């Protein structure tokens, strides 16, 4: 009698904790009504939800409406498992109730800048978890709500022998699974020829990227050797597109002592594509050999997230790892892709630039992304497209006649480099920790981030950047305040009202800005002068020093200064600065430009930093003599009085 009472109490407690059965839970939720209607019409699934232990992954009404596949019994069974599993009990996979019991793949991903995690079932995100239910016989049930319907891989002819295929079986019988519109026989044949079939049938969980036949139209099949085949497989990780971390490199099977290939998934901004984005995968051969050169190959994902018994398959437009196109053909290939806007500009407005790329040898191209054109000032861009000479200058600023890799920038083996525009260089920087570096390039006053580096072509590299170089977007004030090379000059100008005028976009300026190293020379050679300028009590003198470097009324590039000097027919020409005159002598020595003022010879280390209201030239010397920074006795006395007052205040506070 006592045992019966305990069982009754225990059962009552369970009913309070776990509540209704799965079907009743579905019916109680208006946001799951469409899935509930499908269950009501299916006697088998309805019975399972009412009377048996299990876990249900229920898609919302919006998810059901977005699903274009069949909504039959197999569809419902693929969302159901026969074990009750709360979120913390989910492992890498969960067995579904679909015939053949194919797995549902679970991804647990840390939310950026948070201590929490988010969970995905295949490609669907869990948006509400651990809704508990119970059957009439007190068996536990769990409901998780997902934002996307789960799509299974089932043969179109209902052939039970093909249930729950692994990756190899899917490729072998692709037509039976409805992939006839995307033939994969070419890559499948290379798998057989290179004796790599075991990789695609090995149990476990891996990610397989399979190029369709169309991608082999320009790729020699013989180049797809065993190393290339292995470079399409990520072992031990099942990666669906939404659950992936964009840009995060993951080791492939081709990652040994000699050849190292990683893969990373991304969403590329492509106007006209669904949602404006196209998923892609990139291979990066970080260490290679003659047959497998270093570089990045990017391929669009044409059919994503095909679940299989041993992982997930993504069909891609072309083989990875293999470098098979020169730069021009790469750009043509991207005419509807990541560089759609850039290709359109070059093709329609600057065909000579395309010819220049064709004729040149080793190249590096910094190609602006689609977003770079979308986010640019459209008025400035329109004027640029209407001026073929200016457009050519801007395009040439993006072109370097040598190979510059991300490693060169990250390891600081290349800090600056000449461009096809003979007057301007590009300047590189690597920001952040070694494991999470951001690489930047500055050209013509625009600082851009390399959002995709090292795309390999037969004749060089392409880096995709997030801004159009040479189209200024910052005022002179914004530029000096944000640029670390000019921070000392910015600090000095902030002691008085000097910097304020640099924010005036209604006037044009030419500013010869001493670099931080230039001010360091003053500190070493003229310590007292440096102290007077930077101690904060001599704003007038600081302003006076900088006024020797500023020209008001014109924004003059190096080419303008050079032309002015040559037209003077003298070894020097004078320019009226805000304070005094600059005895200008412009000379070009071994690719560098120099200017002079009263015997001080300064190298222009960064010419033509263009701003919305003028041009900055960063120089390696300060164009003043100690005599230019005079401090009157009255100023000294005033400072002494202020210091005395300040000391008295401190003494009073200490009492």
From TrEMBL:
Residue ranges, compositional bias (Polar residues): 279-288
Domain FAS1: 19-150, 164-320, 326-469, 473-623
SMART domains assigned: FAS1
One Pfam family here: Fasciclin
InterPro entries recorded: Adhesion/Biosynth-related (IPR050904), FAS1_dom_sf (IPR036378), FAS1_domain (IPR000782)
An MF annotation (GO) of this entry: cell adhesion molecule binding
Sequence segments annotated as region (Disordered): 270-289
A single BP term in Gene Ontology: cell adhesion
Example of a GO cellular component annotation carried by this entry: extracellular matrix
Protein name from the UniProt record: FAS1 domain-containing protein
Gene source species: Artemia franciscana (Brine shrimp)
């Amino acid at each position: 009698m006592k045992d019966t009472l305990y069982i009754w109490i225990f059962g009552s407690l369970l009913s309070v904790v776990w509540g209704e059965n799965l079907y009743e839970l579905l019916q109680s939720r208006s946001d799951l009504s469409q899935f509930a209607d499908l269950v009501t019409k299916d006697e088998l699934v309805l019975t399972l939800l009412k009377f048996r232990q299990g876990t249900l992954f229920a898609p919302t009404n919006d998810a059901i409406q977005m699903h274009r596949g069949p909504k039959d019994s197999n569809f419902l069974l693929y969302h159901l498992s026969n074990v009750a599993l709360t979120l913390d009990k989910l492992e890498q996979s969960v067995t579904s109730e679909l015939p053949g019991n194919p797995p549902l793949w679970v991804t647990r991903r840390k939310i950026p800048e948070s201590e929490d995690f988010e969970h995905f079932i295949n490609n669907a995100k869990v948006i509400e978890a651990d809704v508990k239910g119970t059957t009439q016989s007190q068996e536990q049930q769990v409901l998780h709500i997902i934002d996307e319907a789960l799509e299974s891989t089932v043969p179109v002819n209902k052939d039970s022998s093909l249930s729950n295929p692994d990756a190899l079986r899917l490729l072998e019988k692709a037509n039976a699974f409805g992939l006839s519109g995307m033939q994969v026989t070419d890559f499948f044949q290379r798998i057989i020829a290179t004796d790599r079939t075991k990789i695609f049938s090995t149990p476990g969980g891996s990610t397989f990227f399979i190029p369709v036949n169309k991608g082999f139209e320009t790729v020699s099949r013989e180049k797809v050797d065993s190393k290339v085949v292995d470079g399409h497989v990520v072992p031990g990780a099942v990666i669906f597109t939404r659950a992936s971390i964009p840009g995060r490199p993951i080791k492939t099977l081709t990652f040994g002592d000699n050849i190292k290939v990683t893969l990373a998934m991304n969403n590329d901004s492509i106007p006209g594509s669904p949602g404006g984005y196209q998923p892609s995968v990139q291979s990066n051969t970080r260490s290679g050999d003659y047959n497998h050169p270093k570089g990045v190959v990017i391929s669009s994902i044409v059919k994503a997230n095909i679940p299989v018994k041993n992982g997930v398959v993504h069909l891609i437009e072309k083989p990875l790892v293999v470098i098979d196109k020169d730069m021009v053909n790469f750009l043509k290939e991207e005419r509807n892709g990541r560089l759609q806007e850039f290709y359109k500009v070059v093709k329609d407005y600057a065909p000579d630039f395309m010819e220049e790329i064709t004729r040149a040898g080793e190249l590096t191209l910094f190609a602006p992304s689609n977003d770079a054109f979308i986010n640019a000032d459209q008025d400035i861009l329109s004027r640029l497209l209407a001026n073929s000479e200016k457009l050519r200058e801007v395009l040439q600023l993006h072109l370097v006649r040598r190979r510059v890799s991300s490693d060169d920038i990250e390891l600081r083996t290349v800090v600056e480099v000449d461009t096809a525009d003979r007057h301007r260089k590009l300047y590189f920087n690597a920001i952040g920790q070694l494991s999470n570096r951001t690489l930047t390039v500055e050209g013509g006053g625009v600082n851009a981030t390399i959002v995709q580096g090292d795309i390999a072509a037969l004749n060089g590299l392409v880096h995709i950047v997030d801004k159009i170089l040479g189209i200024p977007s910052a005022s002179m004030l914004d530029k000096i305040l944000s640029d670390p090379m000019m921070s000392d000059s910015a600090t000095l100008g902030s002691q008085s009202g000097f910097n304020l005028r640099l924010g005036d976009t209604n006037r044009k300026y030419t500013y010869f800005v001493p670099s931080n190293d230039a001010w360091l020379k003053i500190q070493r050679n003229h310590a007292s002068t440096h102290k007077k300028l930077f101690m904060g009590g001599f704003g007038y003198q600081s302003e006076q020093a900088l006024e020797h470097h500023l020209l008001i009324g014109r924004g003059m590039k190096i080419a303008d200064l050079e032309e002015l000097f040559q037209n003077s027919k003298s070894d020097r020409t004078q320019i009226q600065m805000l304070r005094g005159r600059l005895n200008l002598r412009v000379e070009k020595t071994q690719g560098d430009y120099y200017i002079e003022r009263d015997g001080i010879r300064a190298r222009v280390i960064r010419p033509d930093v263009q701003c919305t209201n003028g041009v900055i030239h960063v120089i390696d010397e300060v164009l003043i003599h100690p005599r230019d920074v005079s401090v009157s006795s009255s100023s000294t006395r005033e400072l002494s009085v202020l210091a005395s007052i300040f000391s008295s205040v401190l003494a009073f506070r200490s009492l």
